[in-house]
Design a protein that fits this description.
InterPro entries: Ig-like_dom_sf (IPR036179), Ig-like_fold (IPR013783). There is one protein chain. This protein is an alpha+beta fold. The chain has a single domain (23-138), classed as Immunoglobulin-like, CATH 2.60.40. It is 23% helix and 37% strand. The chain contains two helices and nine strands, in the order H-E-E-E-E-E-E-E-E-E-H. A hairpin with a 7-residue loop joins strand 8 and strand 9 (121-133). It is globular. The two termini are 21 Å apart.
């Protein structure tokens, strides 16, 4: 009986790890919509960052804090649109006219001030993996990438499980 409970626990951990990473596949010229829901039980966030990790670079696309003005990556300023703020229920970012270089991992990072500790911070993350395919090219990954994506998801889940113990 204990073994079954262990398997249920492992399955729940892997499922939660997979739920934190979203995969999206779009074509050049389309728009990507990213949404972030701040955790209401921590109060409003005091900082928000949106990072993009590409093949060879990592860029801060957006920084928002109560003390400073909104900072947007100058290379994507014209294509990036923000709606909502730190006090909003939902924060949305739209990146228009997608390019192949927009492929990669997008990570939302929110910082909350802990209510009971003056200097304590709580951080939460949400991640989206985007694959931008060339317009006019056939989708090479229609069926061949599904096993690869499941393998990556399972590996990420197992790593998270291993590090949580």
């Amino acid at each position: 009986m204990k073994t079954r409970l262990d398997y249920v626990f492992i399955f729940v951990q892997i499922f939660e790890a997979c739920a934190e990473l979203v995969f999206k596949r779009l074509t050049e010229g389309e728009s990507l919509g990213l949404s972030c829901l701040p955790q209401q039980d921590h109060g409003p966030p005091v900082g928000l960052h949106l990072y993009h990790r590409g093949v060879q670079t990592q860029t801060t696309l957006l920084s928002l804090s109560a003390a400073r003005a909104v900072r947007v990556d100058p290379e994507r300023r014209e294509r990036l649109q923000l709606s909502g703020g730190l006090d909003s229920i939902r924060i949305n970012v739209s990146i228009s006219d997608l390019q192949l270089s927009d492929s990669g991992l997008y990570t939302w990072e929110l910082s909350y001030r802990e209510r009971n500790i003056s200097d304590g911070m709580i951080q939460s993350e949400q991640k989206v993996f985007l694959l931008v395919e060339g317009a006019g090219r056939p989708r090479m990954c229609a069926h061949g990438c599904t096993p690869l994506l499941w393998t990556i998801t399972a590996a990420a889940g197992l790593l998270l499980l291993a590090f949580s113990w």
